[in-house]
Amino acid sequence: MTVDKVLDAKGLACPMPIVKTKKAINELESGQVLEVHSTDKGAKNDLTAWAKSSGHEFLKHEEENDVLKFWIKKG
């Protein structure tokens, strides 16, 4: 998978990961992929719901050393 932009949202609490993700995805072209790193455990549900409601594609997520990683394709 090609990642076009990486967003470091580690250490931020809700709603900041969503706010920063929205800003970052607005800088991408349709079809590009944003990788988001977060330590907020609520980010999984938040980002999944936000991507769906915003017309973006939630590709996958992984957890690595207490860091949640998400991949979202811009719609």
Tally of structural domains: 1
Compressed to H and E, one letter per element, the order equals EHEHEE
**Shape by Cα distribution:** globular
Largest sheet: 4 strands, mixed
Distance linking N and C termini: 16 Å
Write the CATH fold name: Translation Initiation Factor IF3
CATH level 1 name? Alpha Beta
Mean pLDDT: 96
CATH architecture annotation name: 2-Layer Sandwich
Task: Tell me the name of the CATH homologous superfamily.
Answer: TusA-like domain
Structural classification? alpha+beta
Low-confidence stretches are: none
Strand order of the largest sheet: 1-2-4-3
Q: What is the number of beta strands?
A: 4
Keywords: Transferase
Family: Belongs to the sulfur carrier protein TusA family.
Protein name: Sulfurtransferase TusA family protein
Pfam family, one: TusA
SSE topology:
Elements (H helix, E strand, L loop, with lengths): L4 E5 L6 H11 L6 E6 L4 H12 L2 E8 L2 E7 L2
Parallel strand pairs: 1-2
Antiparallel strand pairs: 2-4, 3-4
Organism: Cytobacillus praedii
Pfam family, one: TusA
GO molecular function: transferase activity
Task: Write up what this structure looks like.
With 75 residues, the chain is of the alpha+beta class. The chain has one domain (5-73): Translation Initiation Factor IF3, CATH 3.30.110.40. It has two helices and four strands, in the order βαβαββ. The chain has helices spanning 16-26, 43-54, and strands at residues 5-9, 33-38, 57-64, 67-73. Strands 1-2-4-3 form a four-stranded mixed β-sheet, with helices on one face. Helix 1 links the parallel strand 1 and strand 2 (33-38). The longest helix is centred in the middle third of the chain and has 12 residues, at 43-54. The model has no long low-confidence stretch (mean pLDDT 96). Belongs to the sulfur carrier protein TusA family.
